[in-house]
Amino acid sequence: MAKALNSGQESKNDAANLVIQSYKQLLYGAVEFEESAKKMEDKYNEALAIYHLSYDFAWSKKSVKYCGFAWRVAGSALSKLYAMNQSEKTEKLILCSRSVLREVLN
Description:
Layout: H1 2-5, H2 9-28, H3 40-61, H4 68-89, H5 98-105
Helix pairs in contact: 2-4, 3-4
């Protein structure tokens, strides 16, 4: 990722996106979380590993900017895992698309 971010401005974004996509492919065995054939438990455990590694690295560098990597790569799995854990502790979970939420809140 560091090499990708040290390239030119326009190519920097393209290079970073390629790195993110390759790590998603490694994590999910597919381009996105929803398309993966892996067992859910495996996806969640690997997403948590990426989360912990990223946050430990950010802590060691004393820079929060390194935390974003975990969310770009494993954000879908981490969000679903968080929602699932919260729904077990509290009331039933309600899923809502962004467009519906925007319409309701605006």
